[in-house]
Design a protein that fits this description.
Layout (H helix, E strand, L loop, with lengths): L13 E4 L13 E3 L7 E6 L11 E4 L5 H9 L5 H6 L19 H22 L3 H30 L4 H15 L1
Parallel strand pairs: 1-3
Antiparallel strand pairs: 1-4, 2-3
């Protein structure tokens, strides 16, 4: 499967194939191992949206990525990332005041690094009165990095590993608290 947006692979929740495509018909309903994470599986679903004559004839699904992926995700019961994660904290959730990088997952370390880069970029562009660049930095962080990658990826961890849930919520809280 090919992509023009490899940075969104971390947030993939499925693979869509055309239901009449003989190359993939026997895979429909099965799951494929995520290319970056051995313990994450994504489902293979049939959908007439896929053009079987374009590229490989298989489309990766990242529901927070664009309107088409969002519609496919809705049609195939893939949850919207932000609603999923923000709706999951337990009543006893209390945010941490400090982070220990050695205890955070790779996803969390990455998004906190991207948060720091975004904060620096926003501060620099505001000082220079480059408001358009500032907006681009914010859009990239919230849309591409936080939603497309971190939150999409967090869904699998929240379902599979309850012991990591507080850490994920703390990281999300930190991202929202610092950036807002």
């Amino acid at each position: 499967m090919a992509t023009t947006r490899p940075e969104t692979i971390l947030g993939d929740t499925g693979i869509a194939v055309h239901p009449d495509d003989d190359r993939y018909r026997h895979f429909v309903g099965k799951s494929a191992r995520h290319p970056f994470f051995a313990d994450k599986y994504i489902k293979i679903v049939p959908d007439h949206y896929v053009d079987q004559n374009l590229g490989t004839g298989a489309v990766k699904l990242t529901p927070a990525h664009d309107p088409n992926d969002y519609k496919l995700g809705q049609a195939h019961a893939s949850q919207q990332a932000s609603k999923y994660v923000l709706g999951r904290p337990r009543d006893h959730f209390v945010p941490q005041t400090q982070f220990e990088f050695s205890r955070e997952t790779l996803y969390e370390q990455w998004i906190l690094h991207r948060l720091n880069a975004a904060v620096s970029g926003v501060n620099e562009t505001l000082e220079a009165k480059e408001f358009s660049k500032c907006t681009q930095i914010l859009h990239q962080f919230f849309y591409d990095e936080l939603c497309d990658v971190f939150i999409e990826n967090s869904k699998a961890l929240l379902v599979a590993t309850p012991e990591e849930q507080p850490s994920i919520f703390n990281t999300l809280y930190m991202c929202l608290d610092v950036s807002l």
